[in-house]
Amino acid sequence: MPVNLSFHPHCQDFRINSCLLHRRTTTLLRECRVTTDTNLSIRFVDDTEIQWLNEHYRHKNGPTNVLSFPFADGADSSLSQVPIKELGDIVISVDTAWREANEFKQSLHERLTWLITHGLLHLLGYDHERSESEAIHMQDKEQELLHKLHHSRSTAMTHLAINVDHIATIRQARGGIEPDPVAAAAICEMAGASGIVVHLREDRRHIIDRDVRLLRETIKTKLNLEMGANKEIITIALAIKPDMITLVPEKRQELTTEGGLDVAAQKKSLAKTIDKMRKAGIPVSLFIDPDSQQIKTAQEIGATFVEIHTGRYCDAVGEKARDQEFQLIATSADEAYQMGLRVCAGHGLNYQTTARIAGLDTIEELSIGHAIIARAAFTGLDRAVRDMLAIVQKASKRY
Description:
With 399 residues, the chain is an alpha/beta fold. It contains 16 helices and 12 strands. It is elongated.
C-alpha cells in the first residue's frame, strides 16, 4: 500500500517527521483493510493553497484543516482497468493544524495524525455532513483507529541499554575486584541488550577508569558514557572515544542523579563540550527533564540526542499523577523528535513502569539499570535482562 507524502516549501518551517507520519498512515490503511496494491497521496500545504482548493472545488471561502479527494469521484471509467488502484488524495493545511494543536494542547504530529485519519475515512466513504448518525459513526471509527495507533507502534523496535553502575557499587562496597562490571556487561549483551551505560563520576564511587577502558575494548554493541561536564572527565572521554556520551548533572552528595540538566542556564559551557565531542566524532546526548525550553536549547547547541528524565513519572503516586507525568514525557519526546533530535529515556524505570514509555513511537532507546540489577539478585543477570527486554519488545512491536 504505497503512501506518497509531499510538502509545500513553507511546511519545512514546522520540522515535520515524514517517516513517522508515513508509518502511522500505513498502519491506518492496514487497520482499514485497504489492499496493499492501493495508492494514497497526502499533500501538506499552507493556508493559502488549501484556501484556493477549498474555493475552487468546494465553493467555500477560507482555509480549512483537511480536504479529501476520492479518486473515483469524476474519474474516467476506463481508469478502472489500470492495475494500480488509487484511493485518492488528502490535503492538509499545516498552518491550521499548528493552530489547532496549540488550541487542543496536542503536539503537531498528534494533530496531523488525527487529520490524516479523518481524511482517510472520507476517502473510504464516511461523511459526517450527511447526517447526525453518520457523524457519530465516523467519530466512533476515528476514535477506534486512534486508539489502535496509540496502543501499537509503527516505528522500529525500542532498544534497551543496560546501566551496570550498581554492579560496580557492590564491588566498591568491599573494595575488592568482584563483581566485575565488565563481565556483567558481557552477560547483558549476550542476553540481548543493545548497549551498555556507565557513569564515570568525579568521585569514582562505583565505575572507575579501569572499567571504562576495558569496556571500550570489549563491548560489542555500544558504549554510552554518562558524565558530568568537568575537564578531567571530558579529557578521559576524548581519549577513550565511547560510542556516545550523555551529559548529566552531578552533585557530590546525591545518591543518584536527581533531575535533568538545566541546559538553558549552562548553554555556553555545554555548547563548548558538545563542540569538542563533535570534532572527535562522539555524539552527545543531554539528560533533561521533559521541558520544552530544555529541548529547544539542546537542539540549538548541537546535541544529537536527548534522554528524557522519567523519574517523576516512575515516582508519581496515583494513576492521575502518573498519567500527567506520562503526557509530559510523550509530548516532550514528540517535540524533540520534530526538531530532529534522537530521543532516549531513562531513570527509575522498572518492570511495572517501562512498557508505557517503550510504547512511545518517538523514543528509540531506554536506559535502565537499578531495577534490572535488583532483580538479578534474585533471578540472575541473564534472566533479568531477558525479562526486561521482553517487556520493551512487546510494548514496541510492529503490527
